[in-house]
């Protein structure tokens, strides 16, 4: 059994760690409230953008805009959104595992894959495993997320797709469902196929007059659909990260409490054994002096 001094040192160390995990839980909780509010505000906008694009696309042929044109996949780009910090459970692992699975499936079909990675955790993982990295964006989720961040990333994707450098672009991120549930989402954002079928069905009831011309409207609207999807993914990933971190830190704090209780019991046992041993030594000395 460890000495009382060693046990006290362990208890002190765990108590210090517990203070850190409790503080991290509180910070994550505050950040989660803000991130959740941002997600709830963004979802209707993104859905509306898809609905409008769906109505417009139903009146067009796919040749009217390159972002609607399906091509045979020879080169694909996978956009992976991870966090910039760890200590958030399996959140990053699930996203990276999904990306690795998608890459393996594409490679088995002879399709070349490149990764565009958001977040230092994903960048570090991809660098270590020598993934072909097209672009990397550290620090986006670490600060306040701006719509310009989505535009910056999306413009690069759209440019590479229009110039036939990639034939499809996939997006992988964690979707925030609740504090205890985050689900990995895998969607194709180029070419744009995620258009509301309900919108397409409703649009057949109407005849649209386009101002400006249909082609010009498409060229303005379709990139904004991708902007909205990327921006929503940023917000969803940020909320998922904070929720996962809050749960992980809550579990760590509770585990620390249990470990402190166990070590306190061990300390009491060790102290009792030490007292008993000292009493026996005293008794033995007294008997020897008689």
Give structural notes:
The protein is an alpha/beta fold and 290 residues long. The chain folds into 2 domains: 4-19 and 249-282, Orthogonal Bundle (Helix Hairpins); 22-244, ATP synthase, F1 complex, gamma subunit (Pyruvate Kinase, Chain: A, domain 1, 3-Layer(aba) Sandwich). Helices cover 62% and strands 14% of the residues. It contains 6 helices and 5 strands, in the order H-E-H-E-H-E-H-E-E-H-H. The chain has helices at residues 4-57, 91-108, 120-128, 147-162, 197-203, 214-289, and strands at 75-81, 112-118, 133-137, 168-178, 181-190. It has a 5-stranded mixed beta sheet with strand order 3-2-1-4-5, sandwiched between helices. Strand 1 (75-81), helix 2 and strand 2 form a beta-alpha-beta unit. Helix 1 runs parallel beside helix 5 (197-203) and helix 1 (4-57) packs antiparallel against helix 6 (214-289). It is elongated, with a radius of gyration of 28 Å. 30% of the residues are buried. Residues 196-201 have low confidence and may be disordered.
Quick overview:
This protein is an alpha/beta fold. It folds into two domains: 50 residues, Orthogonal Bundle (Helix Hairpins), CATH 1.10.287; 223 residues, Pyruvate Kinase, Chain: A, domain 1 (3-Layer(aba) Sandwich). Helices cover 62% and strands 14% of the residues.
């Amino acid at each position: 059994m460890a000495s009382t001094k060693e046990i006290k040192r362990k208890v002190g160390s765990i108590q210090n760690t517990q203070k850190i995990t409790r503080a991290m839980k509180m910070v994550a909780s505050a950040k989660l409230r803000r991130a959740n509010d941002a997600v709830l505000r963004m979802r209707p906008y993104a859905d509306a953008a898809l609905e409008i694009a769906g109505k417009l696309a139903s009146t067009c042929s796919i040749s009217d805009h390159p972002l609607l044109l399906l091509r045979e996949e020879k080169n694909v780009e996978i956009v992976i959104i991870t966090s910039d910090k760890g200590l958030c459970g399996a959140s990053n692992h699930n996203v990276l595992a999904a990306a690795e699975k998608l890459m393996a499936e594409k490679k088995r079909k002879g399709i070349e894959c490149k990764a565009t990675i958001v977040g230092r955790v994903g960048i570090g993982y991809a660098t270590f495993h020598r993934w072909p990295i097209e672009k990397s964006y550290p620090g986006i989720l670490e600060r306040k997320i701006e719509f310009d961040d989505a535009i910056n990333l999306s413009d690069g994707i759209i440019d590479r797709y229009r110039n036939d450098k990639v034939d499809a672009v996939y997006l992988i991120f964690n979707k925030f469902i609740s504090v205890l549930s985050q689900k990995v989402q895998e969607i194709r954002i180029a070419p744009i196929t995620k258009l509301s079928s309900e919108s397409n069905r409703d649009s057949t009831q109407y005849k649209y007059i386009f101002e400006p011309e249909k082609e010009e409207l498409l060229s303005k609207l379709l990139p904004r659909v991708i902007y909205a999807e990327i921006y929503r993914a940023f917000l969803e990933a940020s909320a998922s990260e904070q929720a996962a971190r809050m749960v992980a830190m809550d579990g760590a704090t509770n585990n620390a409490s249990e470990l402190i209780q166990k070590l306190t019991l061990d300390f009491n046992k060790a102290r009792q054994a030490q007292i008993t041993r000292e009493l026996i030594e005293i008794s033995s000395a007294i008997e020897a002096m008689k």
